[in-house]
Amino acid sequence: MDGAFEVGFNKLIATQLDLGTHKFGGTNFSGNSIALHGILHSSETLSFGAFVGRDSLESADREFAGLEVGFEADSFDIEGYYLNKIDNQESFDVLGVSGNYHLSDTFALTGSLESGDIGSSFSMKRYALGMRYMVSTGVTLTADIGASEAESFGVRGSETFVGVGAEFTFGAARGATFGKRSLFEVIPGL
């Protein structure tokens, strides 16, 4: 379960808080994530952001920071981000891009691609296609199908996944400006 909350101080400046708690069904592992964004709306269609956050899985914590940009037009929106570690643990870098193409006021096609390296021994890619259907004002159903690929110490593996969800939006029509930032959001099953 996770969520994002945004507060606008004026038309130009806002902050967004991402909170999440994660329980992994096949194990007894549980985790938490938190990220804070500073957002500059340079125009009605273009936003820039910077964020810091922490992921916790059992007793392991990873702190990160990054930059993000988002563009919104009538029929599509797109956002990209770069995430990097800021703690003294093993290094990691993640690049991501996602977008929506609106076929109508209630239906959109979605796509995302993320690629990252954690330390010198693990790399991963995740890509997904999906749809969003607005059932009513503030309630949207989502579905995704995708795959993740990982390589560690020369061993490669891939896994497909299906995701089904519901989003509830309060306040501004588009909800939070940016997607949630966390390694739990990048790696399916985490």
Question: Describe it for me?
Answer:
This protein is mainly β. It has one domain (2-186): Beta Barrel (Porin), CATH 2.40.160.40. It is 2% helix and 69% strand. The chain has one helix and eleven strands. Strands 1-2-3-4-5-6-7-8-9-10-11 form an eleven-stranded antiparallel β-sheet. The radius of gyration is 17 Å and the shape is globular. The mean pLDDT is 88.
Identify low-pLDDT runs.
none
Cα gyration radius (Å): 17 Å
Helix content: under 10%
Domain unit count: 1
Please tally the helical runs, counting DSSP H or I stretches of 4 or more residues: 1
Number of strands: 11
**Outline type:** globular
Structural classification: mainly beta
| N-to-C series of helices and strands | EEEEEEEEEEEH
Mean pLDDT: 88
Quote the distance from N terminus to C terminus. Answer: 12 Å
CATH architecture: Beta Barrel
Question: What are its keywords?
Answer:
Porin, 190 residues
How are the SSEs placed, and which strands pair?
Blueprint: E1 2-8, E2 13-23, E3 30-41, E4 46-57, E5 60-72, E6 76-85, E7 92-102, E8 107-118, E9 122-136, E10 139-152, E11 155-168, H1 183-186
Antiparallel strand pairs: 1-2, 2-3, 3-4, 4-5, 5-6, 6-7, 7-8, 8-9, 9-10, 10-11
Give a quick precis of the structure.
The mean pLDDT is 88. 2% of the residues lie in helices and 69% in strands.
